[in-house]
Amino acid sequence: MKAKIAKNNFVLMDLAIDYYLHRGTPPYTFMSLWNDKEPYPLNELKICLKKRIMIAVNKQKQEFTLGNDLLIQRLNKKLERLNKIKG
Asked: Is the C-alpha dihedral spanning 9, 48, 86, 79 positive or negative?
């Protein structure tokens, strides 16, 4: 996975999620240090989103917060919707 740090950025990840959920067309692209049209394929997005959910769940185990609980629920719903998209 190229541009790994960028692809794990929550803002970029949220943009890619919205892109796939609303358009679903071939890979979302963004500007990176290496390429002006760096692809963010759906399968890589799912991997990064699962890691983000795991981080939130582990954080939740250490200290329960309502905000984190809502984040986990929202991200799980988005992951379910992304899993329905073929790509």
From this structure: negative
